[in-house]
Design brief:
The relative contact order is 0.18. A hairpin with a 2-residue loop joins strand 4 and strand 5. The mean pLDDT is 91. Helix 3 runs parallel beside helix 5, helix 4 packs across helix 5 and helix 5 packs parallel to helix 6. The chain has nine helices and ten strands. The chain folds into two domains: 155 residues, Rossmann fold, CATH 3.40.50.300; 67 residues, no CATH class. It is globular. By secondary structure, it is α/β, with parallel strands linked by helices. It has a six-stranded mixed beta sheet with strand order 6-7-8-3-9-10, with helices on both faces. Strands 2-1-4-5 form a four-stranded antiparallel beta sheet.
Amino acid sequence: MIELKNVTKRYGSLTAVDDVSFSVKTGECFALLGPNGAGKTTIVKVLLDFIRPSSGVLSISGIPSTHAECRQSIGYLAENHHIPPSLSGWEYLMRSAELLEINRSEAIDQCNRIVELIGMQGRENTKVGTYSKGMVQRFGLGAALMGDPKLLILDEPTSGLDPIGIREIRRLLESFKDQGMTIFLNSHMLSEVEKICDTAAIINRGKLLVKDSISAIVKDGEALEDVFVRLVKG
C-alpha cells in the first residue's frame, strides 16, 4: 500500500528526514513513532505531496505520491486540526463532501453512516463550539472517512485528549482496523500504539532506527515505551 525508498528531506543545512525506507502492507495498522522533531510529520507531508522530498521515491498503491490519482484513496486527519466553531458537525461533514465533489444525495447517505459510526447521533446538529476535544476529533475522523478511503493517515489523533477521549478514539481505530482499512498513524502515545497497531517504525533525528511488527519489537515482557526510550537515547 505504502512504500518509501531512500527518502531524504532537507531544509537548508537541516536534514529533517535522512535516507528513510520502509513499506506498509494493505490492511495493516502501522505506527510511525519518534520524539518531537524526529521527522514524523515531515514524512506525512512528503507522502501526501504537501512538500517534495530532496531525494527518494514514495508511492501509494503503486502510484507515485506526486500523482493526484493516489490521493483519491486517502483520508487524512492533521495534528491539531480545526473545525470552525460556528458550524455543526453535520455541516462540517457536508462541506468535506463538497470538497470531494460527492453529489448531495450520496453525501447525505455518507454523513448519516459516518455520524452513526463515530457515535455522534443526536449531537451532529449542534455547534462545534459546544463540543469537547474528543468530539471534535471524532468529527475530524468522520471527515477523513468521507469518500470511503482505503488508507487513513492520522497525525497524532489523540493529541490533547483526556483518558476518556483517548479510549473513544482507540475504539474507533479498532473498528476501522476490523473493517480491513489500512491505517498510518503518527503518535507518541506508545501504550495506545501497542494496543492497536500491527507494525511500527521508530525514527529519531530523521533516521529510521527500527521497523518491524510490534511483537518483534517488544520482547521478553519489555514494553514498547522501554524499547522506544532505549533506541532514542542510543
